[in-house]
Amino acid sequence: MLSVLVVPIWSKADPASQGTALLTAFTLSFTSAAPGGSTLGATNTWAIAALAVASAAVALFSIFQFRNRFNQLKLGMLNFLLIVGTIGANFYYSSQGEQLLNIKLIGTYQAGFYLPTLALMLNLLASRFIRRDERLVRSMDRLR
């Protein structure tokens, strides 16, 4: 989730006006190719960055809760919600970016958009294996 902070999430280029829009975890910027190539507008997208950092922090904290698997499962569910929130924020700000340039052109999703989906799948796998470990420990307790 921390890699979402450094890679672009979404971009769109308009060949007619030579304008580009770029979404990162911190800003949604619109740049024109007019003389000077100045940034015409930038919207803060700190919600994406905050959710990604919170998700990474919860995941790191969850790793060190290995003695209490039930607590790990609860943290995994919290992390699931944070990752889904990150994906939702990505969709929201990319739809805002679609409005900046020619609406007929479609923007492209970059690697930063797909990384939370990968984190979501890995989080679900972690929850599955934590449940499996808990079942194994309980079955060993029955044998005693």
Name the helix and strand elements from N-terminus to C-terminus, one letter apiece.
Answer: EEEEHHEH
- What is the 3D shape? elongated
Beta-strand percent range = 15-25%
Total of helices? 3
Work out the count of structural domains. 1
Low-confidence stretches: none
CATH architecture: Up-down Bundle
- What Rg, in angstroms, do the CA atoms define? 20 Å
The CATH class assignment is Mainly Alpha
End-to-end Cα distance:
42 Å
* Quaternary assembly: single chain
Q: Please, what is the average pLDDT?
A: 90
List the helices and strands and how they pair.
Layout: E1 10-14, E2 19-23, E3 27-31, E4 39-44, H1 46-63, H2 69-98, E5 108-109, H3 111-143
Antiparallel strand pairs: 1-2, 1-5, 2-3, 3-4
Helix pairs in contact: 1-2, 2-3
Keywords: Membrane, Transmembrane, Transmembrane helix
Transmembrane segments: 45-64, 76-93, 113-130
Protein name: DUF4293 domain-containing protein
